[in-house]
């Protein structure tokens, strides 16, 4: 996110004299450049110019010599806070006494003094304090203490504004040093969207400020003198053997030489200050100039030590096995898609100088001994640069700009601007020869009907507003017929490729505030829908049972299906594969909520949890086959019904699912003993709790299905519309192989329910049940049935047989063994009988028992166990 110092912005756009950072940020936000942060003045308080009257060196016991200095800081600030009994040189003159450890100044020099109450960068407050036997009443400042970097003179010490008692100096004791040094500058940090890469420069932001306020804008490109080259300079060859569909990796390469730069030349203080304000660290004159021009114009530059470069310079793709040690001192193995800058040291294109548009190599970087420079200013393909920067995890200021698009008209101008600044502050000469290889890609014209803006945005725009807005952003607008324009975007706006892009610019510049906000009217009194209430009820039921809700990302790896033990024909293997996944090792969308919930359980256990009891309500997706493809309808009109049907048919089958995982101890231990562990019965009970919370009833049948234990899991069903039953989930103990795969406690159990189907099966109207006023009667039955008969079928037969007297039927025991024979099982039910008309007699209870036994025998062949 670029930082915009207001004084720098004011060089290209006319800012009001009283403009504040907040006001500038507000103006920029009107054209889509959102404020991120505002940085106030670097220094506040009384920072003044002082003249050194006298100084006395005082050796200390630690071998260090400090200076006791008397400084004239002007009539308004000359106060003596030191001990009056201490003999002080210059005490007869109004001054302040300050202790200073630097030695690069003498009596008569003008220096910068921070008086008590000053706050320096880093929130460093200055106060009078006792030290070295004196009361130091302030501080004499260095450039680093003021956030200005090293002194341009190269001396190690405080800032010396003027030497001796020379006349005609631009400052006097007591003058405001904050204004003198530009330390009152405010800085606005803005957020730039990916399509507005030109705003990563002062030039671009100043243009947008002009659009927002109508202020005069001076394009800095027009102020750069670009002489006619005397001929080609350093030989450059553009060889891109693997261009992308968007074009070659490098479409233009400018090389310009500068000879005889003074390697000891210092970066001017104003430039170093601007770089610091913009968030960059000043390094050396050559590097600082390239960074300054990049920040100002938006064109990244790279400077090579000319003595280390062997012509010709070759731009090509990487070869197998090539490596590069970049400027951050990291050796990187290059990829065949990387675009490289190479030279011919050892053969044509043999030595790698840098990754194009990302970062240079250390072999040819400028050093303190560099005198001759080759300046590179190029136009690189955004996709190529972005992929290389991400592949090598090497984001840079250059790559930020290249991957968003750089003005292809800038390279020659930017190279000359940087060369002129180097010569101005470092001496030397600019070579008259310039290499300019490649071509400038011209923007493609766009046809725009005058009524398109009104049709898309929904409000009326006059022809003058349409044409004026487009010309304001730099477009060339020609008429083609009475109601049609042919618009050619400017070179710095590669994002303008469609008529909708132009419409967006018209709406932006005329003003988003002109578009009325129409909010839908919310109907009153409806509250939550039935489904919303049901989801909250199911959530609350599991929370009250002691589980914790978690959130897991919906992405899974290819190997998850094998880890869960799915068969090859299991429909849960039909996962949606993402074209651009967040992580390469998780390219699929989950088809079961347990696929992402079990890893969450493993992560919690790995971080110290002794047991797990978690649940989640989220979506799952199953693809509709590998051949399902969604059409892409045209943006010019509403999709047809046939297109919409085809789109919906290609979408994956999605549903909202509830899943839970429980394992380990079901509660904390105590002196009374350890709690019971979670088990398969708890998973079934939790499923029933969730179903009861939404008003549905589950039927449980034994079923073998991954990832559950083959003998300790059940299939969960609900009554279907046709009188049968529909599977809505499964619950039980997880398979031991799955438990081991995810490092879970022994016999960890789980459940998974199709919550949407469960809610849909619940009755929409809940009927109130009268409170019983007569006592109940209890009867127990144990029926021997075939092993294949589900308990739910026996339970249903009991209810039918007893009729209205059956208040509740509950299965409390299942037995298999030698006493009842092979292939059979005993199901024991507890039945509660009650009548709404009176107390049940012994005859009524006996009749109900007989009806129950007969019904079970008739329906499922069950025999009452003796």
Major β-sheet, in short? Answer: 7 strands, mixed
How much helicity do the residues have? 10-25%
State mean pLDDT (0 to 100 scale). 89
Question: Regarding CATH, which class of the largest domain?
Answer: Alpha Beta
- Strand order across the biggest sheet? 28-31-32-36-35-34-33
| Name of the CATH superfamily of the largest domain | Bira Bifunctional Protein, Domain 2
- Number of domains in the coordinates? 6
- The radius of gyration computed from the alpha-carbon positions, rounded to a whole number of angstroms, is 40 Å
EC number: 6.1.1.20
Pfam family, one: FDX-ACB
Cofactor: Mg(2+)
Catalytic activity: tRNA(Phe) + L-phenylalanine + ATP = L-phenylalanyl-tRNA(Phe) + AMP + diphosphate + H(+)
Topology, element by element:
Layout: E1 3-5, H1 6-9, H2 21-29, E2 34-39, E3 47-59, E4 65-72, E5 96-100, E6 110-114, E7 119-120, E8 124-125, E9 129-131, E10 134-136, E11 139-140, E12 160-162, H3 177-181, E13 187-191, H4 202-213, E14 236-238, E15 250-259, H5 269-277, H6 285-297, E16 302-305, E17 313-317, E18 323-325, E19 331-333, E20 339-343, E21 351-355, E22 359-360, E23 373-380, H7 382-391, H8 397-402, H9 410-426, E24 429-438, E25 446-449, H10 452-457, H11 463-472, E26 476-479, E27 484-488, H12 499-510, H13 530-544, E28 548-549, E29 555-556, H14 560-563, E30 588-589, H15 594-606, E31 612-622, H16 641-650, E32 653-663, H17 680-694, E33 699-702, E34 708-719, E35 725-734, H18 736-741, E36 749-754, H19 755-761, E37 777-786, H20 791-802, E38 806-815, E39 824-833, H21 842-860, E40 863-864
Parallel strand pairs: 14-17, 28-31
Antiparallel strand pairs: 1-13, 2-13, 3-4, 3-6, 4-5, 6-11, 6-12, 7-8, 9-10, 15-23, 15-24, 16-23, 17-20, 18-19, 20-21, 21-22, 25-27, 26-27, 29-30, 31-32, 32-36, 33-34, 34-35, 35-36, 37-39, 37-40, 38-39
